[in-house]
Specification:
With about 140 residues, this protein is mainly beta. The chain contains two helices and twelve strands; from the N terminus they run αββββαββββββββ. A seven-stranded antiparallel sheet has the order 4-3-2-9-8-7-6. It has a three-stranded antiparallel sheet with strand order 10-11-12, with no helix packed on it. Strands 1-5 form a two-stranded antiparallel ribbon. Strand 10 and strand 11 form a beta hairpin. The longest helix is centred in the first third of the chain and has 7 residues. The radius of gyration is 14 Å and the shape is globular. The protein starts with a helix and ends in a 6-residue tail after the last strand.
Length: about 140
């Protein structure tokens, strides 16, 4: 079981603007209104190494909105421990993590629109992030 899967069992995510895959791959992201998706993917990093130096650098997350994908699982969006934090995620039907994106300064995500394979998550501050639900790096 990967570090991110262990964190997700307790509905926690690292406090870092990043995309996390259940298999252990992680990459930094930045909110970018100039990008059509509303975010930009940056370089990969080693989550185990980051949390080794500060294992308490995590936030509890709580879902505010979900979209059922039937046999493909569900999309989930919500908030972190602090009012400015938000997250978006794709989960299996058993609520196991497929991928999650955490933002420190997005505000909570409380709306999801699904069009084909693209989900647009909207935050309480009006921010919108669109991702391919099968691979949010696209």
């Amino acid at each position: 079981m990967t570090m991110i899967e262990r964190l997700w069992e307790d509905f926690r995510l690292p406090i870092r603007d990043a995309l996390y895959f259940a298999g252990g791959e992680s990459c930094d992201v930045v909110l970018d209104s100039d990008e059509p998706s509303g975010l930009k993917m940056l370089s990969t990093f080693d989550l185990d190494e980051i949390l080794e130096s500060d294992p308490s650098w995590v936030s509890s997350v709580d879902g505010l909105v979900a979209v059922d994908l039937g046999s493909r699982g569900l999309l989930w969006g919500g908030e972190g421990s602090y009012g400015s934090e938000g997250f978006l995620a794709r989960l299996t039907g058993e609520r196991k993590l497929i991928w999650a994106i955490f933002f420190m300064e997005s505000n909570p995500f409380d709306r999801i629109r699904l069009s084909g394979n693209v989900a647009t998550f909207s935050s309480t501050s009006g921010l919108e992030v669109a991702v391919d639900i099968d691979d949010p790096r696209l």
